[in-house]
């Protein structure tokens, strides 16, 4: 989808925003000719991207569109790789935690032009550090992948609609638990290198979860 012009943010409720996004997706076609659409809700955990993605998925189902729901947390690398440089290395969090190869193999490849539509909802449980052994599902043509997670943009994933939940550095620090403050440099790096506010199609200012505003 073509990004809209950046500018003033308009107050919006989450319910209205996800409804509008679902309407856009329900009427859209993939830019690369895929029979499936792929949408992302990108944001730091403090911005609660999973809640936005869950809402979007539900609105799409209400519009009769099949949905495959994926969270980046289900496609992390094993601890031996994620934590190779220690438990609190922000560059490892940025570069090594997400298993991009698995996502291409199990999600994006099957949902690309000529793909099978046979996809996994998750692959690895970081809590148990074991494979989830989830069953494959087949997303029919016309279905929509809805993915959430942090640091998703700038990796070449073929999203047809990318929503970025924007937090100011102060809000990000305030809403991130103290034991996770070691991740903050990774989000600063993301802002500087990827500039997700420009890379996304829609930006939601989420400093106050009760009063979001957006460019949508």
Please, could you describe this protein's structure?
- This protein has helices spanning 14-26, 49-62, 79-82, 90-95, 100-108, 169-175, 184-193, 196-199; strands spanning 10-11, 37-42, 67-71, 118-119, 124-125, 130-131, 137-138, 144-149, 161-166, 202-205, 213-214.
- With 216 residues, the protein is an alpha/beta fold.
- The protein has a seven-stranded mixed β-sheet. A two-stranded antiparallel ribbon has the order 4-7. It has a two-stranded antiparallel sheet with strand order 5-6.
List the helices and strands and how they pair.
Layout: E1 10-11, H1 14-26, E2 37-42, H2 49-62, E3 67-71, H3 79-82, H4 90-95, H5 100-108, E4 118-119, E5 124-125, E6 130-131, E7 137-138, E8 144-149, E9 161-166, H6 169-175, H7 184-193, H8 196-199, E10 202-205, E11 213-214
Parallel strand pairs: 2-8, 2-9, 3-8, 9-10
Antiparallel strand pairs: 1-11, 4-7, 5-6, 10-11
Helix pairs in contact: 1-2
Overview features:
single chain; 216 residues; alpha/beta; Rossmann fold; two-stranded antiparallel sheet; disordered N terminus
> Helix and strand string, N-terminal first?
EHEHEHHHEEEEEEHHHEE
| Strand residue content | 15-25%
Helical amount among residues, as a percent range?
25-40%
The CATH architecture assignment turns out to be 3-Layer(aba) Sandwich
Poorly predicted parts: 1-5
């Amino acid at each position: 989808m073509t990004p809209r012009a950046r500018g003033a943010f308009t107050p919006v409720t989450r319910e209205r925003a996800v409804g509008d996004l679902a309407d856009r997706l329900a009427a859209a076609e993939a830019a690369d000719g895929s029979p499936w659409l792929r949408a992302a809700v990108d944001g730091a955990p403090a911005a609660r991207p999973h809640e936005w993605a869950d809402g979007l998925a539900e609105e799409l189902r209400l519009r009769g569109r099949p949905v495959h729901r994926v969270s980046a947390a289900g496609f992390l690398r094993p601890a031996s790789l994620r934590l190779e440089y220690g438990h609190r290395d922000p560059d490892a969090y940025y570069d090594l935690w997400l298993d991009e190869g698995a996502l291409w193999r199990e999600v994006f490849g099957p949902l690309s032009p000529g793909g099978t539509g046979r996809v996994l909802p998750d692959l690895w449980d970081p809590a148990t550090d074991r494979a989830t052994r989830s069953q494959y599902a087949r997303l029919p043509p016309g279905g929509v992948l809805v993915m959430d997670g942090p640091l998703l943009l700038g990796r070449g994933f073929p999203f047809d609609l990318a929503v970025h939940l924007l937090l100011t550095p102060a809000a990000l620090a305030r809403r991130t638990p103290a034991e996770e403050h070691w991740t903050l440099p990774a989000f600063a790096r993301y802002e500087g290198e990827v500039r997700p506010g420009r890379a996304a199609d829609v930006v939601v200012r989420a400093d106050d979860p009760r009063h979001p505003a957006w460019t949508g």
